[in-house]
Specification:
The chain has helices at about 15-35, 65-90, 100-125, 135-155, 165-190, 200-215, 225-245, 250-265, 275-295, 305-335. The protein has about 350 residues and is mostly helical. It starts with 13 loop residues before the first helix and ends with a helix.
Length: about 350
């Protein structure tokens, strides 16, 4: 079956219609997860043991709790990678419609969302039983840094100014980002059981949106700047919400840290006028001064931590990609000079 064919439809922007349909599906499935959540309250968990401890995992995992979550995770991961590989090999242009491979990706991701829901209610455990609690968070952080690197050529990194990153590095980041993003989202999705705490629910709908975005490769809506910005901006909302929920006194670090990324980088890719951008900057500065006037202006440096870490990480990632590309080119050159080994 040729999955690279367009879906025949009279809808002018099928990709946009499917995007909104996917958002509605995500909200509906989130409601189902919330409604079914109290059923899991009877499961007894170990006491919380600190920041490096993941609370929502069975005290005594079973063979089937491990086999199902790891088996389903690998099936989901390999399936997603396979569809991305197929699309890159067979599709050459972006479309306002959908390709059959997009339909396959949407159905597959919806299937595995439902499967994880059932797996949670039968066996409970996620991947968190066997891996570090930090691995899920770091995977998403790297994804956000990758986006900053990939978008540098379009919107710049510092108030619209572009970092001098070579086109080869940017091309590599764009060509292979789908494989990493698919891993980060699928891994994070299966890391957590589908419990109904407010923090989990917020995280799951974000994963649903990322699956939706990942399924719409080679459609015009996949590169719509307002939709892609929304996916970046949700991190600000999620990080701040979770910090507040946990009684974390550092919630302004998340709110103004990710807000700083919006002011410094993200809003410059939205086509906003200079006056609008200046307004957002003034509002951001006023709110930061207001919050830290009560918390101590000496602590206002906290709002720079997240932007600094991410900008430095962009530099490190660019160097790693550049070094890898140089090494690959050097090895290829050596093979050309010495074809016999």
């Amino acid at each position: 079956m040729d999955l690279s064919k367009n879906v025949d439809t009279s809808v002018k922007r099928l990709d946009v219609a499917v995007l909104f349909g996917g958002i509605l599906f995500s909200i509906a499935f989130l409601a189902l997860t919330w409604w079914a959540g109290p059923r899991l309250d009877a499961i007894e968990l170990l006491p919380d043991q600190g920041a490096s401890w993941y609370y929502w995992k069975l005290p005594e995992p079973t063979f089937w709790s491990r086999a199902t979550v790891w088996g389903f995770y690998f099936a989901h991961q390999i399936g997603f990678w396979g569809l991305i590989f197929y699309s890159q090999k067979h599709i050459k242009r972006y479309s306002t419609s959908l390709y059959l491979v997009n339909i396959a990706a949407l159905v597959m991701n919806a299937f595995f969302i439902g499967l994880h829901f059932l797996q949670t209610h039968i066996w409970y455990d996620g991947l968190a039983q066997d891996v570090s609690v930090w691995s899920s968070q770091v995977s998403v952080i790297i994804m956000l840094v990758w986006i900053l690197l990939m978008e540098n050529a379009r919107r710049g990194l510092f108030f619209g100014k572009k970092m001098p990153i070579s086109k080869n590095i940017t091309h590599f980041a764009r060509k292979y980002h789908g494989y990493y993003f698919a891993w980060a989202t699928v891994y994070t999705f299966w890391f957590h059981p589908m419990v109904s705490t407010s923090g989990h629910l917020f995280g799951f709908i974000y994963m649903f949106f990322l699956f939706l975005q990942g399924s719409l490769f080679f459609t015009r809506v996949h590169v719509n700047r307002w939709w892609t910005f929304s996916l970046e901006f949700i991190v600000l909302l999620h990080g701040t919400f979770v910090a507040l929920q946990q009684g974390n006194d550092l919630w302004p670090m998340f709110a103004f840290g990710f807000g700083g990324l919006f002011i410094i980088t993200q809003m410059h890719g939205l086509g906003l006028s200079r006056n609008v951008r200046a307004f957002f900057l003034l509002v951001y500065a006023a709110l930061a001064l207001y919050i830290y006037s009560d918390r101590g202006l000496a602590n206002i440096h906290q709002i720079t931590w997240i932007p600094l870490i991410e900008f430095l990480s962009v530099l490190v990632m660019a160097l790693l990609f550049g070094g890898g590309l140089w090494l690959a080119s050097w090895i290829k050159g050596q093979q050309t000079v010495n074809p016999g080994g």
